Amino acid sequence: PTSDTERPDRRRGRCGRMVGAIARPRVVARGPARYKAAVLVGGAGHFWLTTENSTYADMIRAIHVEWTTPPTLAQKRRMAEAYLRHAPLDGFHTAATLHGTPTLVIQANADSAVASVLGDVLWERLGKPERWIRAGEHLPLFISLMKDLPTINDWLNAKVPSPRVEPTPAPATP
Length: 174
Description:
Elements: E1 13-17, H1 19-29, E2 37-41, H2 47-53, H3 57-60, H4 73-85, H5 91-94, E3 103-108, H6 116-125, E4 130-134, H7 138-143, H8 145-159
Parallel strand pairs: 1-2, 2-3, 3-4
């Protein structure tokens, strides 16, 4: 890998999908000046609630919790609050590091794998950047993403133009 100082002509953006979109704000939080743009697809703020409420929870087993007795709504709420208090790198907290950075959020309006309402939370915590809402569920969002790639590329090019690098003059010959 090259550093930004070695390659000043290199544009740097971040694209995260699903868990990547959930984790992307924490990646940027560790080096915000390195990134010029972000595209988050199918993400959410609050990882605990995302996994707790996901229709994929049993399939992916991201977090497995066993309560000794079935939890009450109040106990679940306290657990979610405790998680946020102890998870400073959750996107809920780190989304603010993208304020001022061109950010595009792409979400499904009926997502139950990554609950749409938690996608709204991330979007709000990001400062309500540009957002494209797609009809449907999580999987169709990603299946149909291929047709959006040229438009996403155009969006990135508009937000992060290629730096103009002046050619280095050839050394003078004696």
